[in-house]
Amino acid sequence: MNKLLIALFATSALSGAAFAQDMPMVKEIDVTIDMTAITNAKAADYWKAVETDLEAAILSRVTDRMAEDGSTILVDLSEVELANGFTEAAGLEDSVLKGMVHQQPDTDNSKYESYELTVDYKLAAPLLGEGFDPAASAEDAKRAYVALVDTFADQVVANLK
């Protein structure tokens, strides 16, 4: 991931410098989850790549803001919430992506932010279109997953200060 950050920084430093001056700069993005804590096999399989996918989704939204002296964005996802959407009675429409988000600036601690962010299927559903059914097929379940990850990433970036 660090190689990717360095490459993105190098390519975006010149092109985005003027635009990015008014925007919060980002040094690093780190998403963590303890996948071993998810004992529901169906949930573990569905969310198996969420750490990498969410990092990439956030990074794709801040490439023009990458800087060596920016904030570190830390996201600690809740394993319990990821598993709860996969109980016997619930389906994917009960999926929730929840976690603590921390924005840690390198130099200005007055801009430190920490908050809990929750994105559920209902919030992500408008990205999928009317009548979408995540239980209809594996392809639709994947689209629901991407919508949840994208909506979470959008909210993280929207809250950068």
Brief digest:
With 161 residues, the chain is an alpha+beta fold. The chain has six helices and four strands; from the N terminus they run H-E-H-H-E-H-E-E-H-H. The N terminus is likely disordered.
List the helices and strands and how they pair.
Blueprint: H1 2-20, E1 26-32, H2 41-46, H3 50-62, E2 71-77, H4 79-84, E3 96-104, E4 113-120, H5 121-124, H6 138-158
Parallel strand pairs: 1-2
Antiparallel strand pairs: 2-3, 3-4
Helix pairs in contact: 3-6
Task: Describe the 3D structure.
With 161 residues, the chain is an alpha+beta fold. It has one domain. 43% of the residues lie in helices and 19% in strands. It is built from six helices and four strands. It has helices at residues 2-20, 41-46, 50-62, 79-84, 121-124, 138-158, and strands at 26-32, 71-77, 96-104, 113-120. A four-stranded mixed β-sheet has the order 1-2-3-4. The radius of gyration is 17 Å and the shape is globular. 29% of the residues are buried. Residues 1-20 have low confidence and may be disordered.
